[in-house]
Amino acid sequence: MNQTEQLAAVKAYTISKLGQDSTGHGMDHINRVVRMSKRLANGENVDPFLPIVAAYLHDTIDEKLVKNINAAKEELIAYLNKNEFSPDQVQQIMDVIDNISFAHTLDGEQINLSIVGQIVRDADWLDAIGAIGITRAIYYGGGHHEKIYDPAIKPRYNMSREEYRNLANETIINHFDEKLLHLKDMMNTATAKKIAAHRQQVMLDYLAEFHAEWNAEK
Ligand code: ADP
Ligand code: NI
Question: Which domain of life, per UniProt (predicted)?
Answer without folding.
Answer: Bacteria
